[in-house]
Specification:
Layout: E1 4-8, E2 11-13, E3 18-26, E4 29-35, H1 39-42, E5 48-51, E6 56-59, E7 61-66, E8 71-72, E9 75-76, H2 81-90, E10 93-101, H3 108-119, E11 126-132, H4 138-149, E12 154-158, H5 169-182, E13 185-189, H6 193-205, H7 212-217, H8 220-237, E14 241-243, H9 249-260, E15 265-269, H10 271-275, H11 278-281, H12 303-312, E16 317-318, H13 351-360, H14 366-380, E17 398-408, E18 427-437, E19 440-443
Bound molecules: N-(aminocarbonyl)-beta-alanine (URP) and zinc ion (3 copies).
One zinc ion (ZN) binds near residues 189, 244 and 245.
Keywords: Hydrolase, Metal-binding
Cofactor: Zn(2+)
GO cellular component, one term: cytosol
């Protein structure tokens, strides 16, 4: 049975252009776009017509950095694939790329299979996987080739978290060399975790136990140093490199220098680094624990470099690093010792809105909004143009966005499975109204109409910024 949906009268915004156009959806894909009011568009018939007059019609968001159900810090991220992808849909994100984990002593295969088992049949929107390499050895290096052929084309390595995810420079170099040969993209958590652990120990010995010390010991210089080192190792390996969750101005400078040399080095930042700061981490009592993540929030002055990087394309992607832990019972594990606060912030539902707010405030253009939130992550991780744009043949992942609606972000109204909002009380102009995932309406005029299991595993190609 063929179903046709027509989205009529909106302003279609992609990374490349803005046009008043009608969008015809057929069997889960975009069948055609035509200028609004033309004979071609008027002749279209459909089972359902969505009136988008006065609204934007944009590609569904692609959040290339989430951690649903991640076991971490002695607990597990509080959103499951079911609750987290539902919240993503509410926020206009129709694809997530989550991180499967290889734990030390196990294979990539086992890790990936475990993540497939968690996600299979539970997701509201489409999903893919990156692989976290925690145990680089002869076997796992060989497995990288296999994963690339299965559509898991990116691998996260950690210069932080010794004893958990950490890899030393030799292991990092070997993984980069492998990626150089098989088309994989290395994603780096760039913080000098060995040095940070010394500073953590010294801070705790001085009785500095509160959340704000998390930000103080994870020095911006140690992010910049690791970023620099990762770039040099990637040059030696002749491999492309993507730095995740960039927060420090000094780290942005390393990316700028590398890109000015023409190196295939890319960068991601997250809404928390653009909108929050060490002021939040220093909230009275233990409230700052809500803002503990790594890399950490930085003093406000760093935000200028991040916005600038997004405008100049020295940073290409904004992902959430969604890794929620409830304040009650989870963040509280670190009362009296900041190093025991589980690291991570919720945000998968808020990214599209926060970045639209940046459009409203004149920080980025509308098209840049769609680029950093949809098109660039899709291209970076081999999903374009199936995801990330509105074009004939693309998956009909479409958001009708009301640019004039006013909303206040709050844990009382969000859909993420976490008992606080990192953006509590923040006013946003703009709101998701209707969301289609492969042609199926999953948010219908601000009501959820999706279902667990609609979302499909989406194998990915290799990075489309290369060659
Ligand atoms: O604090 C964070 N970012 N938690 C998630 C794990 C990671 O390093 O991305
Ligand atoms: Zn990380
Ligand atoms: Zn992460
Ligand atoms: Zn992270």
């Amino acid at each position: 049975m063929s179903t046709r949906t027509l989205i009529r009268g909106g302003l279609v915004v992609t990374a490349a252009e803005e046009t008043h156009a009608d969008v015809l959806v057929e069997d889960g894909r975009i069948a055609a776009l035509a200028a609004h009011g033309t004979d071609a568009a008027r002749a279209w018939t459909a089972d359902r017509i969505i009136d988008a007059t006065g609204k934007y019609v944009i590609p569904g968001g692609v959040d290339a950095h989430t951690h649903m159900e991640l076991p971490f810090g002695g607990t597990a991220a509080s959103d499951t694939f079911e609750t987290g992808t539902r919240a993503a849909a509410w926020g206009g994100t129709t694809t997530i790329v989550d991180f499967a984990v290889q734990s030390v002593g196990t294979s990539l295969r086992d890790g990936l299979d475990a993540w497939h088992a968690k996600a299979d049949g539970r997701c509201a929107v489409d999903y893919g996987f990156h692989m976290i390499l925690s145990d680089v050895n002869e076997h796992s290096l060989k497995e990288m080739d296999l994963l690339v052929s299965e559509g898991v084309t990116s691998f996260k390595l950690f210069m932080a978290y010794p004893g958990v995810f950490y890899s030393d420079d030799g292991r990092i170099l070997r993984a980069m060399q492998r990626a150089s040969g098989n088309g994989g993209l290395i994603m780096m958590h760039a913080e000098n975790g060995i040095a940070i652990d010394v500073l953590v120990e010294q801070a705790l010995a001085r009785g500095e136990t509160s959340p704000r010390h998390h930000g103080e010991v994870r020095r911006a210089l140690l992010e910049a140093e690791a970023t620099h080192r990762a770039i040099q190792l990637a040059r030696v390996a002749d491999a492309p490199l993507y730095i995740v969750h960039v927060s420090a101005e000094e780290a942005v400078a390393e990316l700028v220098a590398a890109r000015d040399k023409g190196l295939p080095v890319f960068g991601e930042t997250c809404p928390q680094y653009l909108f929050l700061s060490t002021d939040d981490l220093a909230a009275p009592g233990f409230e700052g624990a809500k803002y503990v993540c790594s890399t950490p929030l930085r003093p406000k002055e760093h935000q200028r470099a991040l916005w600038r990087g997004l405008r100049t394309d020295d940073l290409q992607v904004v992902s959430t690093d969604h890794c929620p832990f409830c304040f009650s019972g989870q963040k509280e594990l670190g009362r009296g010792d900041f190093s025991k606060i589980p690291n991570g912030l919720p945000g998968v539902e808020n990214r599209m809105d926060l970045l639209h707010q940046a459009v409203v405030e004149g920080r980025i253009s509308r098209r840049r909004w769609i680029d950093i939130a949809c098109a660039a992550p899709a291209r970076m991780f081999g999903l374009y143009p199936k995801k990330g744009t509105l074009a004939p043949g693309a998956d009909a992942d479409i958001v009708v966005y009301d640019p004039h609606a006013e909303q206040v972000l709050s844990a009382d109204t969000h859909h993420m499975n976490v008992d606080y909002s990192a953006y509590e009380g923040k006013r946003i102009t703009g709101q998701v109204e209707t969301v289609l995932s492969r042609g199926t309406v999953v948010i219908d005029g601000r009501a959820y109409t999706g279902r667990a299991g609609h979302g499909r595993y989406t194998p990915r190609g290799t990075c489309q910024y290369l060659g």
